[in-house]
Write a structure and sequence with these properties.
Length: 249
């Protein structure tokens, strides 16, 4: 029997989104989170060959910075984990070398942002290098984590009760995430996360909605939130099929 899941976006941008998933267990919700962080392959610089580096930084420091520059990741099937893409950089001071100065040999693999600073070069200083980018997973190295901020919370349902008794001071009720009120989803940031701002003078009851979780996802630009979530779910499905086949042997 196929399980039915309900997904509803609360906020949706290319690199940042918040969405509600109903009909999943806490274990499955955590599996999605872990897959977004660790199992979705991204491109990142792995090897750097320096032609000239007369800056104040050692080669190893610059290689680390180059490795942490987010790169766009091609659609699935375009590359395997054995393929490499070459990027080069050649900047002479006085100037600041930015991620946008990286020139890629493949249009599908480019710096996700052009304004990431790499090194400030003074007069007569130069940075010239060639680098190889590879496809790998976050579980092997943090530079391959396309999801830079991935988390989830229980959806909370708010029920409004009677007025606060006369002469009794209303205590602050801090909640974070998204609440459900009469079927409407309301981000708690709209009332500064304090229920007393939304329901002044009222008694309120808050409870977790079973098997309903609000995900907050941000990417580094390797791909959009939609792509990250889809690839994460695909990776879970692939591992489940692999396990099923192994058990049946």
């Amino acid at each position: 029997m196929t399980e039915e899941y309900d997904v509803e976006f609360v906020e949706r941008e290319d690199r940042k989104a918040r969405f509600l998933v109903r009909g999943v267990t806490p274990a499955f919700a955590n599996g999605i989170r872990r897959a977004m962080i660790a199992d979705v392959p991204t491109m990142a610089i792995d090897t750097v060959r320096f032609v000239e580096n007369s800056s104040v930084m050692f080669d190893e420091q610059l290689a680390l910075r180059l490795g942490l520059v987010p790169l766009t990741t091609p659609p699935e099937g375009e590359f395997t984990e054995d393929d490499t893409v070459t990027l080069s950089i050649d900047v002479e001071g006085p100037a600041t070398a930015y991620s946008g100065d990286l020139v890629s040999s493949d249009d599908l693999v480019q710096p996700a942002d052009e304004n990431v600073p790499i090194i400030e070069l003074k007069d007569d200083q130069r940075l010239e290098a060639e680098a190889d980018a590879v496809l790998n997973r976050g579980k092997d190295h943090a530079k391959h984590q396309g999801g830079v901020a991935v988390g989830y919370r229980h959806l909370q349902r708010v029920e409004v009760g009677d007025d606060v008794p006369e002469f009794e001071e209303q205590e602050r009720r801090i909640v974070r995430g998204v609440i459900e009120e009469d079927g409407e989803l309301v981000p708690t940031s709209e009332f500064d996360h304090d229920l007393t701002n939304r329901y002044p003078g009222k008694e309120v009851r808050v409870e977790d909605v079973p098997n309903a979780f609000v995900f907050h996802v941000e990417t580094d630009g390797s791909f959009t939130v939609d792509e990250l979530v889809t690839r994460a779910v695909d990776s879970i499905e692939a591992r489940a099929i692999e396990l099923e086949e192994a058990v049946q042997l």
